[in-house]
Amino acid sequence: MSETKNTKSQIRLPIILALAISAGIWIGATFAEPKGNQNDLRAALYKLQEIMTYVNRDYVDSVNSNELIDYGINKMLEHLDPHTSYIPAKDASIVQSQLDGEFDGIGVEFGIIRDTIYVVAPLTGGPSEALGIQSGDQIIRVDGETMAGVGVTNRDVFEKLRGPKGSVVVVDMKRKNQKDLIEYKITRDKIPQYSINASYMVNDEIGYIKVTRFAATTYDEFKEALYDLKVKGMKKLVIDLQGNPGGYMGAAINMADELLGGKALIVSQEGKVDQYNQKAFAFKPGLFEEGPIIVLVNEGSASASEILAGAIQDNDRGLIVGRRSFGKGLVQMPIDLSDGAELRLTIARYYTPSGRSIQKPYGSDYEAYESDFMNRFKHGEFFSADSIKFNDSLKYETVKGRTVYGGGGIMPDYFVPLDTTMSSAYVNRLFNSDSNREFVLDYVNENKAKFENMTVEQYYSDFTVSDAMLNQLVEYGNKNKVDFDAADFNKSKEYLKILVKAHVGRQLYDDSAFYKVVNDINEVYLQAIKLFDEAEKIAMATDLHEEEEE
């Protein structure tokens, strides 16, 4: 006869469900939900409690109730829309730190190569840099626990090295050419994360800013970058949002306000609840309200990236260059749950100034939505603008009467096809393995003296990746079981040299050095800097309706 004694999880489950019911009642009261809906919610939650009680007590095998509930929550939310999501407590702090713009830790960029944690670089101003920790150091033990050769993951590293500011962690490092481990007692501190990864002058007039996400500090970083570029003589601006998945809507709105004059509409949003119906307008003097702007987008530019690009396009403030953006027009509100988990609930749709929703279609087929990139690739969209068909019922007009479309991302004013001629399967395997990271770390450590007095500009203009360096990289590939392919290597040799130079530049200097080099093979960027005459024409054009009336 089976034991029916209450376990800890059985005791905990009704408490969790009671909290959920209380939360549901509170939400209903807060938003003045009709009484019938409140009763439906109570009945549904009671049904869930019944089922979980039976499963927990009588199911033939042992179950983890929390895991089962988490799984059920995720499947339930998938039925709503693709962007409402649940983040378990164990992941919530890591995910949130990516948007906060800072976290508490020891201040290193790390990589895991062959089951060993390598310091890619100590972060500037962080406690690890102050103690003399170096690129290439291997983290062997943390607080006495072995971290090498034990299947360590990124999550393991975060959990061990991050912690409250002021707390101490003991890290044993192995340094190349030193026999004994070096023990460091590191006092954790606030570590800033940057979302403006590059800012530099392309030439005497054109400034370039790379924005990789929209976090709590992005707007301040953007203003600082704009100011510095203007001091250097910038008259034309490239904002690179390629691959930027979005983030905080407020950051995008504030950035747009620095570029738009008057009281231009930036974005509006509408939800079921009146408090989520809002419009954002430009209202303050901006740092760059005059002068041509080009915004770079591609299939990886989403959410807040599309808000910024849409505001520039619909207000005829500049030129959008690249490929059709992702198509996310839903607004999420983060809600902290009682156990430390987080719910990101879609509470509104946003609309660009012309009134278009750029949310791409979605239905119950979650996998089809997730595989949209592959579908676009197969249909030829990355290579030809003619493959993209828009619904005439979703036609809108910019401030000056240009036609734009809703229903699935921001279509650029100037389309640039994806260039795959220089890449190859071998190079992709080489860079997706540990080979490149390991080679770059070793090369920089062995050649530091060579670069001591070399500026970023000198590195960009004068340094060349030699054939010997490529051969050495190939050997690292062989060591990591990336079989050499002579045909692919010869096809992609010049491309490979640029990639290696960019990664070495990042290790020696910073992300600006990386992007300055790698942009030499970025087809969207290369086209954009030739198009400022077109960008000026858009900004200076007369309203098309006024021309028609004349």
From TrEMBL:
<keyword id="KW-0378">Hydrolase</keyword>
<protein>
    <submittedName>
        <fullName>Carboxyl-terminal processing protease</fullName>
    </submittedName>
</protein>
<dbReference type="InterPro" id="IPR004447">
    <property type="entry name" value="Peptidase_S41A"/>
</dbReference>
<feature type="domain" description="PDZ">
    <location>
        <begin position="92"/>
        <end position="176"/>
    </location>
</feature>
<dbReference type="Pfam" id="PF03572">
    <property type="entry name" value="Peptidase_S41"/>
</dbReference>
<dbReference type="InterPro" id="IPR029045">
    <property type="entry name" value="ClpP/crotonase-like_dom_sf"/>
</dbReference>
<dbReference type="GO" id="GO:0008233">
    <property type="term" value="F:peptidase activity"/>
</dbReference>
<dbReference type="InterPro" id="IPR005151">
    <property type="entry name" value="Tail-specific_protease"/>
</dbReference>
<keyword id="KW-0720">Serine protease</keyword>
<comment type="similarity">
    <text>Belongs to the peptidase S41A family.</text>
</comment>
<dbReference type="InterPro" id="IPR001478">
    <property type="entry name" value="PDZ"/>
</dbReference>
<dbReference type="InterPro" id="IPR036034">
    <property type="entry name" value="PDZ_sf"/>
</dbReference>
<dbReference type="Pfam" id="PF00595">
    <property type="entry name" value="PDZ"/>
</dbReference>
<keyword id="KW-0645">Protease</keyword>
<dbReference type="GO" id="GO:0006508">
    <property type="term" value="P:proteolysis"/>
</dbReference>
